[in-house]
């Protein structure tokens, strides 16, 4: 695989998308294409938009029989890459639920790079590695106003009683594909959320395109007693996948 040195690989002016393949089918492909093509425009990349036929052309040439796989697409001015890799989440991850910590790195809610999956992804990877060394699965970022934004590779949802909350996009976060699914299918309150708000939280769950919905066991020393709503949403999501 040849990669040409361009502004994507010199300065991060490129983007990527990670898509779940379920029984060979790309999940939420239309939504992923909308997001990636918007990013092409917003970043001013002088490239053709990504079409569905181009994705299926690659998938038809690279078929597999695994139930779950991962498709990664990387676009920059001179590069257009399609890659497949192994799916690594297991049922044990859902059973034990994730453990979270608060990152010391702040999200810049004024930067265009915060709102797209660009090749400027170093904060996410380095902070996730730091969290793993500390025994956590995912770091949670705050913004410059100390408001909760998102995880390194996920969006965050907070349950208080029977109400579900998630940070507003304007707080500085990626509008995740499964985040969009949750907001569209459940009564979700999008708001500005600070750390003090977490004192009354009953449960937390994370979303991303690969694990879907992930229940959370604890945020640092705070252990959540319930995962009822999280697991109910997870079961509904699994049914949705089974019907695509």
UniProtKB/TrEMBL annotation:
Name of the protein: Aminodeoxychorismate lyase
Gene Ontology MF term list: lyase activity
Family: Belongs to the class-IV pyridoxal-phosphate-dependent aminotransferase family.
GO cellular component terms given for this protein: cytosol
GO BP, one annotated term: carboxylic acid biosynthetic process
Keyword Nucleus part of the UniProt annotation: no
Cofactor annotation: pyridoxal 5'-phosphate
């Amino acid at each position: 695989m040849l990669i040409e040195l361009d502004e994507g690989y010199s300065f991060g002016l490129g983007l990527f998308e990670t898509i779940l393949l379920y029984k060979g089918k790309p999940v939420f492909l239309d939504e992923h294409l909308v997001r990636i093509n918007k990013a092409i425009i917003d970043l001013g990349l002088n490239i053709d938009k990504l079409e569905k036929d181009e994705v299926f052309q690659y998938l038809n040439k690279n078929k597999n029989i695994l139930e779950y796989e991962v498709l990664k697409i990387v676009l920059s001015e001179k590069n257009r890459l399609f890659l497949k890799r192994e799916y690594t989440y297991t049922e044990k991850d859902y059973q034990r639920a994730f453990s979270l910590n608060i990152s010391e790195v702040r999200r810049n809610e004024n930067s265009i790079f915060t709102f797209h999956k660009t090749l400027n992804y170093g904060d996410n990877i380095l902070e996730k590695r730091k969290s793993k060394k500390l025994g956590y699965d995912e770091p949670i970022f705050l913004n410059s106003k100390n408001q909760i934004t998102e995880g390194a590779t996920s969006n965050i949802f907070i349950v208080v009683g029977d109400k579900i909350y998630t940070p507003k996009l304007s707080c500085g976060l990626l509008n995740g594909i499964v985040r969009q699914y949750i907001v569209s299918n459940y009564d979700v309150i999008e708001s500005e959320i600070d750390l003090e708000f977490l004192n009354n939280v009953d449960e937390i769950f994370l979303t991303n395109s690969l694990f879907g919905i992930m229940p959370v066991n604890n945020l640092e020393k705070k252990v959540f007693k319930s995962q009822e709503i999280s697991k109910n949403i997870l079961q509904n999501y699994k049914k949705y996948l089974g019907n695509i």
